[in-house]
What we know:
The chain is α+β, with helices and mostly antiparallel strands. The protein has a single domain, classed as Peptide deformylase (Peptide Deformylase, Alpha-Beta Complex), CATH 3.90.45. Helices cover about 20% and strands about 30% of the residues. It has 4 helices and 7 strands, in the order E-H-E-E-E-E-E-H-H-H-E. The radius of gyration is 16 Å and the shape is globular. About 35% of the residues are buried.
Amino acid sequence: MRLPVYLYGHPVLREKSEEITPEYPDLKKLVEDMFVTMYASEGIGLAAPQIGRNDRIVVIDADPMKDKFPECAGRKMALVNPEITVLEGEKVTRAEGCLSLPGLSENVARVEHIHLKWLDEDLKPHEEEISGFLARIVQHECDHLEGMLYIDHISPIRKQLIRGKLHNIIDGKTGCDYPAKYAPKRKRR
């Protein structure tokens, strides 16, 4: 089932997500719905907070990026309770966008090599070293689970320059080509 994407300003995007336990109901269905939503929104990653769920779940299909970033070829993953345990190397700056911030893209510095532990949708453990653009995607999506957005990594000056665009998203003045859930209306002073 296709779900709405929660947009910037919605409080769920700033909450720290909860661990998934073996008793979690309908995990496979939720993961399936997240993939459906991500594909319908033309994304390459989606975290549960982006669909209004305070759960430590991420889905990624990096394959569309394979022509430019070969490490993304065939990389379709469901990450349950992911942990980035090692961050190494110099940071590389690249443009990032986000389904929760439609119409925006900013340069973000991130490391290019990570060590990742996670459970799949069957709650089977996995562990892998990931590099390149795939590591960036994983870091971006895992930030969502901590209540962070990619714009939290940009300079205060740059954030001030995009402030109007951020307010337009909050105020529902920025549209997108997929079903979206805007932030609750805020009171004007």
